[in-house]
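Subject: Sanity check before I submit

Could someone independently write out the structure tokens for this chain? I want to compare against mine line by line before I put it in a report. The sequence has 422 residues.
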Amino acid sequence: MEIKVLGAAGEVGRSAFRVNCDGTNFLLDYGVMFGSPRGSPPTYPLHVKPRDIDSVIITHAHLDHSGCVPSLFVSGNCNVYATPPTFELSQLLIEDMLKIEKNAHSFGIPEVNNMMSRAKEIGFKQKVTRGNTSFELRSSGHVLGGSTVLLESSGKKLFYTGDINLRGSRMLPSADLDIGEIDLLITESTYSQANQTPRIESEQELIEFANEVMDRKGTLFIPSFSVERSQEIACVLKNANFKHRIIMDGMALKVNEIILRYPEYQKEPKIFKDVIDKVVAINDHKDRKRALSEPCVVISPAGMLVGGNAVYYLQQLAFDERNGIALVSYQGEGTPGKKLLETGKISTRGKDLNVVAQVKQFQFSGHADRDSLFEMIKKIKGDPKVLTVHGDNQSCTRFAEEIHEKFGLDAHAPAIDETISI
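---
Independent answer below. Compare away.
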């Protein structure tokens, strides 16, 4: 078994790994990495020829894992495997990316349609055999339908975490680590050097902030990723018996519809449906203006304040001290959200203006943090070689060193274009 690193080496983005098993080639994810600052050209994984790939396996819908798969259908095709919700969410996010970043990519809607025509939907623990190799998906706890990959060939077993969350969330069960002995672990390293605030504390702090804003007759704006984070925040507020209206806008509404179609992938589907039924959906600009006429919570993409309806809400709410802005998503370098956190300013109509609304950040990451990652490795059976990926260069390198120090495993932060054999 040979693994070639095509992306996510010392970087967060463009996850892609080619696995050669006795001549049968698998592609584990094929994502895109957005430029920094946002708006600069995107970066793709190393090129592969579609005719050389037997099967693509998409772990989950986030664009840094799924966004480049349509490029394989520009001049060829191959089979694509994922869970049903992953396919629906991937199509939604990729089409939105193409709409926002017109002509920035080497593919378009026809290639997305071709990708979907070759979609092979599989559920968790459903074994698929290609040549002398079999693989199956397991729940990752990261996003609806999100999975890890367990691949076996010639007596060797590989486990690829994709993005993993051992503790799950209000919406998702925890990751499934009942995988037996393995020979190679490819693990994300995103938060390998930091622990997150315990989720229950983050939830309580957000609820307190929301109530403070309501008490002063303000509006709380929560810019949030459309896939899962928006829905989770609504669940947190409703679970706390929050008495005021919760408004939801933008692509999050389409995501709600998809999630409702897949109760079997949720932890508490009845509770989620009840929450969504009580959320006020914004369908047009008149609704948007009317919604802000009285105190409420507004949940709307984009999570980093890059475009979308978030721009409208920010301009309407940022300059009144009664209002609040709660940042619950990761804020990438060069994004308006990062600028707001660091400078307290936003750019509007070509000018940098001071925000007077109260701004707070809350940790709601869907990734495993440092303690969770070490807990995962402790549970892994066998004596696997470990590749640390999907983190900045320092995080991947240090994480590999620590794994070797703590567990005596052969751990390594691979470089792009490196090939590893087991």
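---
OP: Matches mine. For the report I'm noting this point. The first helix runs from residue 63 to 66.
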